[in-house]
Amino acid sequence: MKSCIKQTMIMVVVLIMGGASIHAQTINSDYVKKLYRKYPTKKSAFCDACKLWVNPYFKSVADTEKHMPLVTYYVYTKEHRLMQEQDTTLSRNKVLAKWNSVYGQPDESGLYREARDQNKGLKPAELLVKGHCEAWILLAYTPDGAIFSNTYTFNAGLEFQGQNVGTEIATEERCRQLTGFKKEAITDSVKIWCGTFGSQKTYTYKGITATVPSHYYKIMTYRNNKTHKNVTECYWMPNEPTEVKSKLQERMVTHDELVKDLGYDPMKVISK
User: Fold this and answer.
1) 61: burial class by Cβ within 10 Å (0-12, 13-18, 19+)?
2) Distance between CA 241 and CA 172 in Å, rounded?
3) Distances in whole angstroms, Cα of residue 3 to Cα of each of 9, 15, 77, 163, 186
4) pTM beyond 0.85
5) Pick from 168, 138, 147, 141: which is nearest to 38 by CA?
6) In this predicted model, what pLDDT tens digit does every residue of 212-247 receive, in sequence order?
7) Which residues touch 86 (CB under 8 Å, ≥6 apart)?
8) Domains, the chain, ordered by start
9) Which terminus of the chain has fewer Cβ atoms in its 10 Å neighbourhood, N or C?
């Protein structure tokens, strides 16, 4: 046990030192532009308008016509959580809160403003927001991770705020808890597949048309260190204003049920 704790702390120190080199640089708009240029997209055979984007943190296959992330894949670890909790300089403001587009893709900020303006007067839960697939809090253990989390199309869809702070955030908290956040750790790492599905309506702004998904989904796989068994948790979450955290258990489905609903297996679209 002492050996495992020592190894974990050594890993955290190494990762923090690596993150420190990024901190030493000036994180501004020029830095962000150069960062995205390092990781261009590639054509994906998954759909006609699909592209694959791979960065050092996660992978994503997105429909660039509908502006929907179809499959994202990320491995969240206990070390990531500890780094994020210990680094008090990483806060969700200024550059680390700004949304960006992958190199070669259009800026969608006007589109989201249009969706907001068309829904003025509605309750907060009924408003459409930028809905992460791979969460900011899970990626913000380095500035680059935080920046990449806020990426249009490849890591966000038009999501109702009710769902955003409802079952969606509940799955994010579940990932953190599994690695020991405010609870005893069950595992050292969680593999996460997440994406959007279906269509409720569309919004158009200056030639950009984005689809409001009918659902978000999430798959988590991990090794239970207590039972020494592999576990798979799947969630099929309606993108609705009425979603709340307490409904998370109702949204749990089997892997087979999720594959049937989607028509494909995300774990095969993007493998480990």
Assistant:
1) buried
2) 18
3) 10, 18, 18, 42, 18
4) yes
5) 147
6) 999 999 999 999 999 999 999 999 999 999 999 999
7) 12, 16
8) 2-269 (3.40.570.10)
9) N
